[in-house]
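Narrative of activities, Objective 1.

The group set out to show that a structural description can be obtained from nothing but a protein's sequence at a throughput compatible with the screening campaign. Below is one input-output pair from the validation batch, recorded exactly as produced.
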Amino acid sequence: MKVLVAIALLCLALIPLACGGSEPAASAGGEVTTQAAGAGPESQPAEESVAVEAEVPPIGSYPQEGPFAAISGGKGDEKPHIDPANRPPPHNPLVRDLEKGSGPAAQVGDELKAYYAGAVYKTGKVKYYGWPPSPPMSFELGSGTIPKLWELGFEGLRAGGVREVVAPSRFFAGTGAIDYVMVLVSVNPAER
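Output recorded for this entry:
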């Protein structure tokens, strides 16, 4: 009997994970252009409180699309390869979803763990990274512990999701625009 109850509780806990879906990235005063792979946003349950941790998803192969770079994954702990779009850098931040992930969408107040790689937009040379074998960075979304632009990049993303964020040079002193690949490893929802 205890086994049947445990199985029933496990099934109930997994229901929110099966819902899937996607949500658009948050907008910063209309300054952000979002292009998502696949269909448009789907409705989600009002509240989900199940923490979800995904294995670090392998970075696939994503074609160059408009101002976005062509991105291909490295093997194992190798950082992703970012082939620049050969266009002038954007004036406003750009966001493209590469993989949707699963579970609850990251919201302000949630505890997140993530990896990232940032390349110079013009050259594709990876200059900034927090990538395996290092542990993922941990932070509370909306706490101000990461740059505002990164918060935009992670908000709405789900565990296992991969997102490209192109940041204009005005966000960085002297480096020019940066093209980031962000991988969300886990979402631990805040009490709401």
